[in-house]
Amino acid sequence: PVPNVFSCTVKVNEYSHILSMMRIDDNAPDVVDVDDLNCYKVVAEDNISNYKLIEVFLRNVAVTENAVNGKKAVERVKEMDYDMVLMDIKMPVMNGLEATKLIRQFDKNIPIVAVTANVLDFDRKTALANGCNEFVTKPVVRNQLIAVVETYKRK
Questions:
Q1: What is the reported pLDDT for 100?
Q2: What is the DSSP string of the chain?
Q3: Structure confidence by residue, pLDDT tens digits, 49-70
Q4: Cα separation of 82 and 145, whole Å?
C-alpha cells in the first residue's frame, strides 16, 4: 500500500522562538493581578531576542522601550520620565555598570534593575555597589520579573 501524504501551512507567531525559551514557574498562578501596575520602562539590552522576551513578559504590566547599549540608556533616561530601567550589564559602546553610574549622577531615585547572565554573588554585589537597586539573572523568569517591577514601581 502507498502511504498517504498530507501537507499544511502553519502560521507561526513572531515570538514563538522566544516563547519557547520562557521559563515558567510551576508554582505561580496562571493569572497575575496587575491592577494599577502599568508603567513606562526603558530596557537597556543589546540582544533583540532578550529584549523581545522581556517585552512579552511585561506586555500586560508595562510599556517598554529598548536602548541597544548603555550610552543610549543614559540618553533616554535624560530625555524621558521612565518609571524604571532594566539594565543589561554586558553591552557594547557602554556597559550597564558605567551607564548606571552616569544615571545616578542626575537621577538618584529611578529604580535600576540589573538583568544579566552574570550569576555570581560577586556580580550581584558589584551591580548593587554601582547603583543598581536589584539584580535579576538570565534566563529571566516571568513572575520573578513582574514581582520586581511591582516592588519598584513609582507610586
A1: 98
A2: -PPP------PPPTTHHHHTTPBP-TTS-SS---TT--EEEEEE-S-HHHHHHHHHHHTTTEEEEEESSHHHHHHHHHHS--SEEEE-SS-SSS-HHHHHHHHHHH-SSS-EEEEES--SHHHHHHHHHTT-SEEEESSPBHHHHHHHHHHH---
A3: 999 999 999 988 888 999 999 9
A4: 17
Q: Please choose, from the candidates 79, 71, 70, the residue with its C-alpha nearest in 3D space to the C-alpha of residue 127.
A: 70
pLDDT for position 154: 56
